[in-house]
């Protein structure tokens, strides 16, 4: 024991304090300047922990050599194994033969004939790497040379060949990969495919993250038969309470493709800007207001819908509505008052020009929150909104609304019956300006004022049984018309615009007064809960009975049912029945099953407005949506979707596919059919696409949620409000 301690002290004396080496062994012997250790040798050097059967240390050259069954751990993340290792403590050099490294976090291993390291750099001769079982890897990447930096944790491979089951599939002269989740500049996973109409498709994303408060993703693409273009996404965090994103793109069509498909534009471009600030006033103006303030901006613009279609190779993932909305919301909120300003801009992608589209630029709102008097028996609040309804040509208007509801409420019969009376005061003023429309006549500024009354009675009863709890509620609400006053525009077009047939005429585009029908509304609701408190049944019936001579005496009957049939099966139904038409105005049914690896959903929507049909308008909608997925085990899963428009007898989309998952790789195949909108010289149209998608994920190289997608979760400390 004394001999071992003496040798240990001797080793330490030959090194600087910062390069101290600790060696433990069953036996040691020293001859001249050479020390040999045998049997369970353990070496501790900086962050390295090495074990071997034998070790030799030369004091003159500062070489430490290890032999047989070497295992080396660097910090907490890397494990290196081999039969021979050499550490030069003076030059801080390390050599391993053969070389094997395992990075524990990512589970990536690398094997080579020899590895050489100096300081933080590690150079590796020709070898192989993978994330699979080393004995029989499902995929591997062979290379002629490689280097790795232990500080940046970035691995470079040269002349890399990817093999799947010993079959070469991809060659690249260079491949770079990060062994941690640090955001850094580099290439992301490419996407490519083949289309009979668009040719070969290739997209190569480029990720740029030079500072910790922003990143940029560039996505250039080429479609050999169609054209070329690119999209970009710039994300930033300017404070701990605010962040934003700017997305933009451009695609240039080939002349032959544009003419053949009669496209309205030979280039497609657009942008989106989003910004969110959760304490705008205090941050921007240096105030110390106690209330909440905020700003949300979502601005969109594009020249046609193909800007969305071309943003990705999978058009089923795109929301291609015919109208896009840009908006900006600004508010300040306290316990008693709310102030808001809203800007809305609409763009119809089916039109060549939106100069006649009505916009709300801006809307100002003041809202006084509910206040009470007389021991909470009297309640009231005030809401004022002013809308600047604007467009480039023809008439414009400034409309201001005033809402003041005053409610008197109480309960009787030991709170079994709740009673309330509400007086609703409403007023609207419209001031018109701009050019006259030759077909709509004159617009006179005017005032509309109304007050009406609502009487309400309701009760709710609960009964507990051994296996379930039943809750029922009854309610009756009677609405009285009250009185109205109108002048100017409202007096001129009140009767004309009240008729639903005239709603789409130019004269009624500023008329948004909804009629108050004197009548009685009856509601019945019931809930059934099981012994565990889970809802089994929700059921509601609602019936309106009108007393206006100009309206239907009995309004539509609504029935809503949500039935959890068992743990796996759920059924939802919503029906509106119109007595005048002796038909349903709406039916929606959905049934779903989730159990035993299955997730199946089927729904059908039918709506009928009972308005006259035309070449451009259909009075009813009938649409089917369905999806099914099955997870057979941890490796195999299958899925299918089918959406069909019964009104137009058109299949909107369908999909079938499977995914095979292993610990180190995924393989998927999907066949997709999708009807996507396009803008042609004949206005709006659609194109029916058929796709075959192959997905290959080599784990962990292609794990989801990498550095490019977790930007918001990785705030630098200076932006975390520390």
Tell me, what is the CATH class of the domain at 2-152?
A: Mainly Beta
Which regions are unreliable across 5 or more consecutive residues at pLDDT < 50?
1-18, 704-722
The rounded distance between the terminal residues' Cα atoms is 52 Å
- Structure class: mainly beta
Can you tell me the CATH architecture of the domain at 2-152? Sandwich
CATH topology of the domain at 2-152: lipopolysaccharide transport protein A fold
Number of beta-strand segments: 42
Q: How large is the share of residues in beta strands? A: over 45%
Task: Tell me roughly what share of residues is in helical segments.
Answer: under 10%
Biggest sheet descriptor: 28 strands, antiparallel
Mean pLDDT reading: 85
Description:
The protein has 722 residues and is mostly beta strands. It has a domain at 2-152: lipopolysaccharide transport protein A fold, CATH 2.60.450.10. It contains five helices and 42 strands. The protein has a 28-stranded antiparallel β-sheet that branches. A six-stranded antiparallel barrel has the order 6-7-10-11-9-8. Strand 18 and strand 19 form a beta hairpin. It starts with a helix and ends in a 24-residue tail after the last strand.
């Amino acid at each position: 024991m004394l001999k071992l301690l003496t040798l240990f002290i001797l080793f330490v004396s030959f090194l600087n304090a910062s390069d101290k080496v600790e060696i433990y062994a069953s036996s040691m012997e020293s001859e001249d300047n050479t020390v040999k250790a045998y049997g369970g040798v353990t070496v501790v050097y900086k962050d390295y922990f090495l074990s071997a059967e034998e070790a030799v240390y030369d004091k003159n050259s500062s070489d430490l050599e290890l032999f047989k069954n070497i295992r080396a751990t660097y910090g907490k993340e890397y494990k290196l194994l081999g039969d021979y290792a050499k550490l030069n403590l003076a030059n801080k050099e390390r050599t391993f033969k053969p070389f094997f490294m395992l990075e524990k976090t990512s589970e990536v291993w690398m094997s080579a004939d020899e590895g050489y390291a100096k300081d933080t750099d590690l150079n590796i001769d020709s070898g192989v790497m993978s994330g699979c079982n080393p004995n029989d890897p499902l995929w591997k990447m062979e290379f002629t040379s490689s280097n790795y930096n232990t500080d940046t944790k970035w691995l470079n491979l040269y002349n890399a060949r990817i093999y799947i089951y010993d079959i070469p599939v991809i060659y690249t002269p260079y491949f770079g990969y990060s062994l941690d989740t640090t955001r850094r500049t580099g290439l992301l996973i490419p996407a490519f495919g083949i289309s009979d109409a668009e040719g070969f498709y290739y997209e190569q994303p480029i990720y740029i993250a030079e500072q910790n408060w922003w990143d940029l993703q560039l996505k250039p693409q080429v479609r050999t038969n169609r054209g070329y273009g690119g999209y970009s996404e710039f994300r930033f965090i300017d404070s701990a309470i605010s962040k934003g994103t700017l997305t933009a793109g451009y695609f240039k069509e080939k002349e032959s493709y544009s003419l053949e498909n009669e496209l309205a534009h030979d280039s497609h471009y657009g942008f989106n800007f989003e910004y969110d600030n959760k304490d705008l006033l205090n941050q921007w103006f240096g105030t110390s207001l106690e209330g909440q303030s905020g700003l949300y901006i979502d601005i969109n613009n594009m020249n046609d819908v193909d800007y969305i279609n071309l943003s990705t190779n999978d058009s089923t993932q795109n929301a291609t509505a015919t109208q896009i909305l840009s908006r900006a919301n600004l508010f300040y909120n306290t316990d008693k008052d709310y102030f808001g300003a809203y800007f809305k801009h609409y763009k119809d992608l089916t039109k060549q020009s939106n100069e006649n589209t009505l916009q709300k630029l801006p809307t100002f709102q003041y809202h006084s929150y509910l206040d009470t008097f007389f021991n909470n028996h009297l309640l009231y609040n005030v809401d004022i909104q002013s809308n600047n309804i604007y467009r480039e040509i023809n008439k414009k208007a400034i409309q201001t609304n005033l809402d003041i509801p005053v409610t008197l409420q109480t309960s009787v019969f030991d709170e079994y019956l709740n009673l309330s009376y509400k007086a609703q005061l409403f007023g609207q003023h419209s001031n018109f300006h701009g050019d006259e429309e030759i077909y709509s006549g004159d617009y006179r500024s005017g005032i509309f004022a109304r007050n009406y009354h609502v009487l309400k009675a309701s009760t709710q009863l609960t009964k507990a049984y051994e296996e379930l709890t039943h809750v029922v509620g009854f309610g009756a609400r009677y609405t009285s018309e009250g009185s109205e006053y109108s002048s100017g525009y409202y007096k001129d077009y009140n009767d004309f615009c009240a008729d639903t047939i005239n709603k789409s005429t130019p004269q009624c585009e500023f008329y948004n007064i909804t009629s108050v029908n004197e009548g009685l509304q009856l509601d019945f609701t019931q809930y059934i809960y099981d012994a565990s408190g889970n809802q089994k049944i929700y059921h509601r019936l609602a019936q309106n009975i009108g007393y206006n001579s100009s309206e239907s005496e009995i309004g539509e009957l609504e029935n809503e049912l949500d039935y959890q049939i068992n743990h796996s099966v759920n059924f939802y139904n919503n029906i509106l029945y119109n007595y005048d038409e002796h038909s349903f105005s709406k039916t929606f049914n959905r049934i779903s099953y989730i159990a035993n690896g299955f997730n199946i959903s089927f729904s059908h929507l039918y709506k009928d407005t009972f308005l006259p049909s035309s070449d451009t308008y259909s009075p009813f909608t009938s649409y089917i949506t369905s999806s099914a997925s099955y997870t057979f085990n941890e490796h195999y899963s299958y899925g299918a979707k089918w959406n069909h428009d019964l009104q137009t007898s058109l299949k909107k989309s369908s999909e079938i596919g499977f995914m095979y998952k292993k610990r180190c790789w995924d393989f998927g195949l999907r066949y997709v059919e999708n009807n996507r909108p396009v803008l042609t010289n004949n206005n709006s149209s659609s194109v029916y696409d058929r796709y075959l998608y192959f997905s290959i994920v080599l784990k962990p190289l292609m794990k989801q949620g990498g550095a490019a997608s977790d930007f918001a979760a990785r705030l630098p400390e200076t932006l975390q409000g520390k």
